[in-house]
Amino acid sequence: MNSGNFSYLSMASLSPYRSGLQEITAQDYGHALLSSMGVGEPLLAALPADNRSASALWADSGAMALTGLPDGAPLHSPAPLAACAQGAWLALSTLCPEHFASDFAAYRLLGERAALFGYKRQGDRSPGGSCRLLSCADAILAINLARDDDFELLPAWLQTDVHDWEGLAAELPDYPAALLLERARLLGLAVAVSSAPACDGPGHSADPASWFRQTPYGARRRPTSADEQPLVVDLSSLWAGPLCGQLLAQSGARVIKVEGLTRADGARTGSPAFFDLMNSGKECVALDLTSEKGQRQLYRLLELADIVIESTRPRALEQMQINAEPMLAQRPGKVWLSITGYGRCAPNRDWIAYGDDAGVAAGLSQLMEQVYGQPLICGDAIADPLTGLHSAVLARHAWHQGGGVLLDVALRDVVNFGAGFSADPRLCQPDLKSYPVSPPVARRAPLRAGELGRDTQAVCREFGL
């Protein structure tokens, strides 16, 4: 994001993160992130310097203002989430220095949706209000009723006459978490247990590449000229996937956003300014995916794509006879990026998750409880912008390396990887005078995103669809 495209910019050597008593910096995290992807020493050495503390970045990100009780002070996050966001940006600027200024304040992406929607901190409720932390018989659950028809599923979930939050809170203590999770996953409800991050100590994830899975398929692409850019087909919706696609567009890729005529990106019904931020610079194609013709058109576009971004449960595409693995095997150098709540592997391949509940599943609310004495929601759908940033780094690197891979990225796993770098809890409550808390702010998109289907005819003619 060069300074000419967006309206705000933020304002050495590597400082290795060695101890739980020492806060990780954005540069430390960027180094760890690139290392987890197998990036070699020349690029690691080129990582820009940024030794601002995680606490300073969190206070300035806007996400701190969204964390805490509505009538209390904003709270620091035990996990260095803003440093993770900025570190991912540093990694992206290292891969594409001609397109991304290293001093862009990427950590502020964590708060920009809230800035546009006017969200405030609500304690154990998400700023957007759709996710709440509620107690069942043996655990605390994050329940995200993000769709209107989710409330219609509550009677089937609890097998009793419940239709609102008050009734839900009253009934849940009678049920164990395991039963509730099993039923929720069968019904397609976004429910998660508040649990500790899976790591083996401060700053050390149990698996150094645990935030993604990479499976090779087919042949890699032969080396291409430096100015050659990929064709990206973006099937994703809402926040994480579209942000990834928009970043790839900013890096010079041609990005075609594909939506269903009868099932468009749900973000179109929200803030137009937010939709523009996620989708400006993309061509907009709408297909009738309920018809054989529309499914054939989609299949052909996916065949031609160099990078595919999708954020649906695998079975949704499989029902249209679209499978990532054979398409990768048929086209040398293709990159298929799958963004889901919990990954593509059974049994969790079809579990639903959104940004707030995925953060709880990754351990954020339990970390907040350990530090502040009660479970709280951390930021606004925090897993979404973090996953969008990480996915753009991963997809761009895979393309540079010649492709031929299926990239499996889960919202929960991205946050869990970052939470593995949490510092000692004593660092979670620094002097607020040293770190003044900034409200959420949002960029201004340089262009309006296209209307639904604006470019359908032109793209169909070009590719003979």
Short description:
By secondary structure, this protein is α/β, with parallel strands linked by helices. It is built from 18 helices and ten strands.
Question: Can you give keywords for this protein?
Answer:
10 strands, transferase, seven-stranded mixed beta sheet, alpha/beta, single chain, 465 residues, Rossmann fold
Characterization of the model:
- This is CoA transferase.
- The protein is an alpha/beta fold and 465 residues long.
- The chain has a domain at 212-347 and 446-463: Crotonobetainyl-coa:carnitine coa-transferase, domain 1 (Rossmann fold, 3-Layer(aba) Sandwich).
- The chain contains 18 helices and ten strands.
- It has a seven-stranded mixed β-sheet with strand order 4-10-9-8-5-6-7, sandwiched between helices. It has a three-stranded antiparallel β-sheet with strand order 1-2-3, with helices on both faces.
- Helix 9 (240-250) links the parallel strand 5 and strand 6 (254-260).
- Helix 9 (240-250) crosses helix 16 and helix 16 (383-400) packs across helix 17.
- The longest helix has 18 residues, at 383-400.
- The chain is globular.
- Mean pLDDT is 90; it is low at 1-20 and 200-206.
List the helices and strands and how they pair.
Elements: H1 26-36, H2 41-45, H3 54-61, H4 81-95, H5 112-117, E1 131-135, E2 140-144, H6 154-158, H7 165-171, H8 177-187, E3 190-193, E4 212-216, E5 231-234, H9 240-250, E6 254-260, H10 272-279, E7 283-287, H11 292-304, E8 307-310, H12 314-318, H13 324-330, E9 335-340, H14 355-361, H15 364-372, H16 383-400, E10 405-410, H17 411-419, H18 456-463
Helix pairs in contact: 1-4, 3-4, 4-16, 9-16, 14-17, 16-17
Keywords: Transferase
Protein name: CoA transferase
GO molecular function, one term: transferase activity
